[in-house]
Amino acid sequence: WKPEPLKVGGGNFHTKHLCTPADWSAKVASMRPFSIGDRVVSLVAKPGWKPKPLKAGDEGVVMGPGTEKNPITVDFGHTSGNLQPTQLCSLTDTHRPWFLGSVPDSHYREALEVVDRYDGWNATGIASDRLNSAILQKGWKDGMRAKMYNAASELTRKADGGRPVVAIVIAGGPACDWERWHLSNPKDLPSTCDYNSETEQHIRSTFPALRLKVCTNPRDMKSFLERGLPLDECQ
To answer: If we measure between CA atoms, which residue out of 61, 62, 44, 54 comes closest to residue 78?
Structure first.
């Protein structure tokens, strides 16, 4: 509202957005354990919501009391509506699963320190490690395909298939570009069946809940994690 947000004052309202002062305490109590302004995550999907459907894992803000059946009104940015307390959880109560999917050799050690500190999953390696230098017989790409696929698969399983899983990549050279392609949104790619005219099966296409965050260095990655892995910064 302009010129200032509504707190106490006048304006035009729909009757469903009003209650008597005597009913206010009961309305607020029906929202428990949540309060106005809390950041929450939806545990359910609502494909019929307008203007856009709600997905499980979407983040929103509690705006106030809702209806008797669904007592909490939540604004998810792209859509809003009323939900029950059992259909939400606090953003601080969730651990968003994530993994490191690509990193240049020059940032490898520092990036792994961030992975360990922030309870992530490492799906990367470097040319000199034993897997790449001694075990793989047909090149490093087979190893990376397996590691990225396994990380996405296992974390999606742990997230019950609904909550988003974030893949973090640190931008680098051609090898990093190839890894990032596998984790990019299929909608942003001209093809998910070939990369630079070579046949490839795009990994992210198998995991609809996967999101991608591109970082410039381990410090940027650490900052993203400390902010709670906001999905609005992901692709």
So the answer is: 54
